[in-house]
Amino acid sequence: MNKLEAENIYFEMVRGRAFEYAAKEHYMQGDISGFLHLDIGQEALSVAAVKAFEKGDIFSTYREHIMAMARGIEPSAVMAELFGKASGVSGGKGGSMHLFEPSHFFYGGDAIVGGHIPNAVGCAYARKLQGSEDGVMVIFGDGATNGGAFFESLNNAATQKLPLLFLCENNGYAIGTAITRAAPFKEQVKKAEPYMLTYSVDGMDAEAVYNVVREAQTKIQEGHGPIFIEAFTCRFEGHSVSDSNAYRSAQEMEHCKAKDPIEHFKAVLREKYLLSDADISTLEEKAQKEVDDAVTFAKAAAEPEVDALFEHVFAEEV
Amino acid sequence: MLYREALNRAYDEAMALDETVVTLGEDVGLYGGSFRVTEGLVEKYGEKRVMDTPIAELSIVGNAVGMAIGGLRPVAEIMTGNFSLLAFDQIINHMAKLRYMSNGKITLPMVVRFPQGVSKQLAAQHSESYEQMLCAVPGLRVLSVCDVNYAYHALKHAILSDDPYIFIEHELLYNKKGGVNFDEQLDPFKARIAKEGRYVTIVSYLKMVDDVMTAVPEIEKELGCSCEVIDLCSLNPVDYETLKASIEKTSRLVMVEEDHKTGGYGAQIVSWAAEELFYALDAPPLRLAGADVPIPYNRTLELASIPTPDSIAKDVIEWGRKNDV
Ligand SMILES: Cc1ncc(C[n+]2csc(CCOP(=O)(O)OP(=O)(O)O)c2C)c(N)n1
Hints:
heterodimer; A: alpha/beta; Rossmann fold; seven-stranded mixed β-sheet; two-stranded antiparallel sheet; 11 helices; 13% strand; B: alpha/beta; 2 domains; five-stranded mixed β-sheet; globular; binds thiamine diphosphate
């Protein structure tokens, strides 16, 4: 990663966190409703993985605001979607869990745990058929690796040598159930080992995530076939805004927050890329301003017309 | 007592009464259930009888079928109906059919609890209703509970019964308040007359019953007539007897459901009435249901996609005026 890339990743991590706090605040005020899954604590993973997987298609879950923005979707379009507005990236029909932008090769935002993994397999098949080399990245939580769709996908992707990167964000929990109570081991990468090349990485370290995803995409572009990466991370908040997080002890939370990926990467910027405190503040201020602007935009944006209810059920009217 | 507390009490009593009753599902144990229905059960009955499962709905129901074959009385919780689709093979091909295919040799005393419906802005993948599919499968008992008292009795009955039950709950009912008469003997297959009336029979189930009740004063005022409101409670079997008596009295039928109109459950009730009670009817039946669209996130669009107290009142009044009610 060069200095510019590093700065950019830091900027997006900070912007992501500011965005999530703003979303939480507006959820409390009633501007945003439904389920709101915050990515705070997991920014390094979300930003660095998306930035490293430079080209190619991305399928993700409901915890995807930061990834969508890292993919180039405007913060204002994401925030407006959370506000349910017509200018939201999904026209107000999808909300927090369903952000789609095919022009950026970003397909959700899927709220059925594991449901999008077979879709990514199919897309990888399409890309292979089309002769595209960039591949597909599918991002999911540790909880998604216990369902049938996951195992079927590993098998299909490996059998067909598809250009597919499986990225497991292991934050240790599926809502309130610890992964070790739902699987016989903590490392979900073990499930993929018989099928494909695998990597494990510290998901709190943006540089490490960036490097491993870059390497994997390069291999995929060279025709290697599917690869599995497990990144260990930690979410700072409850599963969603309505989850009290009571199943994690104060001590566990302290341990988790001590590994803050933003603090960690800030130190890297200083030491390795020689950024000054002023340089860092400039990035932080710019990030906050973009979030403030996104909120202003979302607030002022128009509601969808009621007629929109029947729009987009089908591509062709009969 | 709250609706969810009534369900919790039914679980608790059934588990105390019969030690073969077990429950399983995502977050039902240590977390207490995502809607707090199973709260406290793991502390009382232990992890062997209250099992947290991986996110694997097919296995949750499939394992419950096996537990029932093995001599237990499992109660499986599907966190919400949308996720149950992953388990539909187990529900339809195994849970519903094993008894019949085995010529009655296999009995499945089991329940699948099924929270569903349009809550608040959860978008299309968290808002579906599946009673139409579940009721189309012979071999399943399907209960759809609106009333708190009924919730307690019906769940306890289902858990202790020897048949496979689907127990549908609406996500917006969990915090509904109501009294429970613990000593009553309640027949869960009998429809509940939520309100007596003389000129229109309005049939519904789950949360829509409450929405109909909210709309009724306005309807009665505008049409100058009294409405009878029937809460079906059980969707399979249906208490046609209660329906017949009511429709013969009022000569008019309105069916209200939250689900999408095409293929919705209410089509069953209206087609039954057309077949059986055609000459008893003074007006064509009215069917109010959700729009045939995936449920949108935006609140205005979401409310436009399902019947609401306002739209129910408006539509029934309009129909009533057109049909000389
Ligand atoms: C098929 C299915 N089952 C259950 C749920 C309810 N649910 C939503 S998120 C979640 C936990 C998922 O955990 P994980 O995959 O580890 O992702 P994380 O939320 O930790 O990022 C559950 C059980 C769902 N959305 N889909």
